[in-house]
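Next comes this protein:
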Amino acid sequence: MHSTLSLAPASPLAPRLSDLALLLVAVVWGTSYGVAKGALVFYPVLGFLAVRFLLTFALLLPALLRAPAPERRDALAAGLPLGALMLGIFLCETFGLALTQASNAAFLISLCVVFTPFAEWWLLRQRPGRAMFAFAAVSLLGAALLSGGFSGQWGWGDALMLAAAVLRAITVCQTTRLARRRNAPVLALTAVQAGVIGLGSLLLALALPGTLPPLPSLSDGSAFWLACVYLVLGCTVFAFVVQNWALRHSPPTRVGLLMGSEPAFGALFAVFWLGEQLSPTAWLGGALIVGAALWTMARRSPSPA
């Protein structure tokens, strides 16, 4: 029996499990920036993205091939456009981080939390409850305190991070929209998305001369390959599957807010694993982000009118 993206009746516990799973994804994704940064020491951005997502595609390909023909067609129909959106997200995020200050990047990507209610309203014609706008505002304030706000300078990196935040909000809503029309198994859908991202990154790398050097060896580049394994299994397979499943049980704004706790967990990882320091103001910002996520877990969003 396949786990699908159809909106089948769910158990009363499903929303709570969805919230907890999304918070765990936020924890895992919070660690991904430091891990990916270490991997990029060994290999350039496009090549790294190609390796990460083509490995993911190879791992999940059996699930796609085993799916019944109608479900496989649904996975392709939904996964191709969603994969294209996610390719844009990863390209904007990765290159944006290389071109802007970390504080600006953290603040801008967290704007996804604010953009999602408006994307939901625009794309799905569903106005979120007033409380969700308040939760989003608290989360955004926390992200600003955590990152230190803007430095007053605006560049290409800032624009790319802003674009990534917009694409994140749109992708959450588009996944929900397609879930209502398609009966795609979650693993098969994730395989298609990963294939689009991996192949797109590879084609871009091949099109740009000098951007695809030989892969690091297992002996000299063990840190690169360990990072790839962690990102593939934890930050890609686990995170993509959980997010696709959770969107069956939670409205897009709620999902966006819970995922918006990612900067706080990234800061904790930086402190305890990378040895970075945080100011009291940054700690307050992280507490507000996590508090907003826990607050939204304590109550369900009202159904759209």
